[in-house]
Amino acid sequence: MRKGSRAATALLALCCTAAAGLTGCGGPAREGFSAVGAAAPGPERGAGENVAPQGGVEFQQLGGPSAAGGSTESSATSAAPPGSGTAGGSTPGGATTTPTGGSGSTSGTSGGPGRTTPSPGAPGTPTNPTGPTSPTGPASPTGPPGRPGTTPPAPPPATPARLTLSAPARSAAADRWCERVTVTFTNTGSTAARSGTVSFATHVIGALGIDWATITTTQPLPAPIAGGASKTQTYTVCLEAWRVPLGMHVDTREVTATWN
């Protein structure tokens, strides 16, 4: 039994020696680490502190073409103050933000990998999308609106002069071979009668009432006679004295007229 115990003890000591060589003799295992950037100048930085880079940086789209193979969209942003937890980190959208100078103002916010959305009021961003309103010219003058039913009727077409004569009104004159005849002329046309002639048919009547002769005489028309107007004229109609012997008289029964 003693030889077995010694062999077991020797085997256990050999295992402990091998384990101590691998793990530091059973002490607490040290956590591994990897370097993510250069250490800050001066004393060693504390745990959890971030140091802003000093040079200019630019965005590069993740998974996009390399800097040597093609161009990518880039936008610079100002660095956050130390300890804010944003310098050198990554945003929830996946775009890496890098400080440039510490001015404290940003020119845009991340809108996705490799893209930025300009913030309101950023330089170069128009604040008034609409252009200046062009001035309107003076309104064109318009006449008063017409009222229904007030349009005057169109004038009737012009018609030529047309005279109608009344029956002659006779009266005795100083001589038996003369008499006074009154006639009214009415122009039923729309054009004035500018001139014309009036004809009188005068009968010679004997003492016993016999019609011995009919003599026609003419006199000028009392022109002008306007369209639609009337004019009354009294004429003295006379025959030759020898045509009306003593005991006879004259009787004007018909009156006609011509005009133009």
Quick recap:
By secondary structure, the protein is mostly beta strands. The protein has one helix at residues 2-23; strands spanning 108-112, 115-118, 163-165, 169-172, 178-187, 196-205, 211-220, 230-238, 249-259. It is rod-shaped and about 210 Å long.
Textual characterization of the structure:
This protein is mainly beta and 260 residues long. The chain has a domain of 97 residues: Sandwich (Immunoglobulin-like), CATH 2.60.40. The chain is built from one helix and nine strands, in the order αβββββββββ. The strands form three sheets. Strands 3, 4, 5 and 8 form a four-stranded antiparallel β-sheet that branches. A hairpin with a 2-residue loop joins strand 1 and strand 2. It starts with a helix and ends with a strand. About 17% of the residues have low confidence.
Please report which band the strand proportion falls in: under 5%, 5-15%, 15-25%, 25-35%, 35-45% or over 45%. Answer: 25-35%
CATH class of one domain: Mainly Beta
Low-confidence stretches: 67-81, 83-112
Largest sheet: 4 strands, antiparallel
Proportion of residues in helical segments: under 10%
State the order of secondary-structure elements, H for helix, E for strand: HEEEEEEEEE
Q: How is the CATH topology of one domain named? A: Immunoglobulin-like
Return Rg in Å: 68 Å
Mean pLDDT: 71
Number of helices: 1
Which CATH architecture of one domain is right?
Sandwich
Distance between the termini: 176 Å
Given the C-alpha coordinates, what overall shape results? Answer: rod-shaped
What structural class do helix, strand and pairing data support? mainly beta
Number of strands: 9
